[in-house]
């Protein structure tokens, strides 16, 4: 019985990926840059079933066997990987545990598909390097490409399956940089990231500007990382998040992930900054806000958020590692 076990951490994009150039290969329209987080991760066991078995493939998430409809994306993904290596469509059992509280407002798809890709290659004992692993993760979810590495990671958009890969920038950064995931709103997102991206790519007149600015943002962010410049990192991250959310307002029809509490949090970050407590925000395809700050300000920022936003749940994270085999 062959089984692969892997752990991958989630990542937060500091320069966002927003738009696909190829839906099937999940090639992005723009390069992006992220920070892998230590506090949130996914553990996955991928077990190949004996050929003689009558048991069907299954996928369980946090010990709950998923219905066929919710397993479809995962099953299709495994078939894609099997086809890629000309393997038979063996049956399998996937057991996944997400250590990513939904309340944190962090997408678990980045850690989920990175862990699944690693568990898959381990079960089949495929000789795959990290670059290939980042391609495999990308086929599951774009942001998973970056979770193969720890620390600061760039996803080079590339032009095809071969060169659209993640590259580590610094896997063990020493910069004082924390992320506070603030749970401000439970509203389930009305529009998936895939649908949101498609809408802006197809309809926003500003999409070309977004692409140019994102590439520039990646270059500038790499300079800021090299210079250990917290202020520049935070400023650039905030600008990228604002540009992504502004772009959504310019789609036709327009849409937004922002809720009233999100704006409240943005204003609070601005206020804190004016008061000398340096912090910045970033927001993904949902209403929750993540704060970038330095260790010495964590306590004060946490207290101010709890005061102003009604005892919200806040989880602190810092740099996490790349994907690993568990065993
Ligand atoms: O890869 P997806 O479909 O989870 O999309 C990720 C989109 C953002 O989180 C908003 C940006 C990013 O680069 O991770």
UniProtKB/TrEMBL annotation:
This is diphosphomevalonate decarboxylase. Keywords: ATP-binding, Lipid biosynthesis, Lipid metabolism, Lyase, Nucleotide-binding. InterPro entries: GHMP_kinase_C_sf, Mev_decarb, Mev_diP_decarb, MVD-like_N, Mvd1_C, Ribosomal_Su5_D2-typ_SF, Ribsml_uS5_D2-typ_fold_subgr. Residues 8-166 form the Diphosphomevalonate decarboxylase-like N-terminal domain. Residues 185-311 form the Mvd1 C-terminal domain. Gene3D superfamilies: 3.30.230.10, GHMP kinase, C-terminal domain. The lineage of its organism: Bacteria, Bacillati, Bacillota, Bacilli, Lactobacillales. One of its GO terms (molecular function) is diphosphomevalonate decarboxylase activity. The keyword Lyase applies. It comes from Amylolactobacillus amylotrophicus DSM 20534. GO terms for biological process: isopentenyl diphosphate biosynthetic process, mevalonate pathway.
């Amino acid at each position: 019985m062959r089984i692969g076990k892997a752990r991958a951490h989630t990542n937060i994009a500091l320069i966002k990926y927003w738009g696909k150039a190829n839906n099937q290969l999940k090639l992005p329209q723009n390069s992006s840059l992220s920070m892998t987080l230590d506090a949130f991760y996914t553990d996955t066991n991928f077990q190949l079933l004996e050929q003689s078995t009558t048991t069907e493939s299954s996928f369980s998430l946090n010990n709950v066997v998923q219905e066929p409809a919710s397993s479809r994306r995962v099953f299709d993904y495994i078939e894609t990987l099997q086809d890629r290596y000309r393997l038979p469509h063996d049956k399998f059992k996937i057991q996944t545990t997400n250590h990513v509280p939904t309340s944190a407002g962090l997408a678990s798809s980045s850690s989920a598909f990175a862990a699944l890709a690693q568990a898959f290659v381990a079960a089949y004992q495929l000789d795959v390097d990290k670059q290939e692993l980042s391609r495999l993760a990308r086929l599951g979810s774009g942001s998973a490409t970056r979770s193969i590495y720890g620390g600061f990671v760039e996803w080079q958009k590339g032009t095809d399956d071969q060169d659209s890969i993640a590259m580590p920038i610094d896997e063990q950064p020493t910069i004082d940089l924390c992320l506070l995931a603030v749970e401000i709103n439970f509203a389930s997102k009305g529009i998936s990231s895939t649908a949101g991206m498609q809408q802006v790519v197809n309809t926003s007149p500003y999409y070309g500007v977004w692409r140019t600015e994102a590439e520039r943002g990646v270059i500038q962010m790499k300079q800021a990382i090299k210079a250990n410049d917290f202020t520049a990192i935070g400023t650039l991250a905030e600008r990228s998040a604002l540009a992504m959310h502004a772009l959504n307002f310019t789609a036709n029809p327009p849409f937004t992930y922002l809720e009233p509490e999100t704006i409240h949090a943005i204003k609070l970050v601005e206020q804190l900054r004016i008061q000398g407590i340096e912090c910045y925000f970033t927001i993904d395809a949902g209403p929750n806000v993540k704060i970038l700050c330095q260790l010495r300000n964590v306590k004060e920022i946490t207290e101010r958020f709890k005061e102003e936003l009604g005892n919200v749940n806040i989880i602190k994270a810092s740099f996490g590692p790349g994907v690993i085999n568990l065993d």
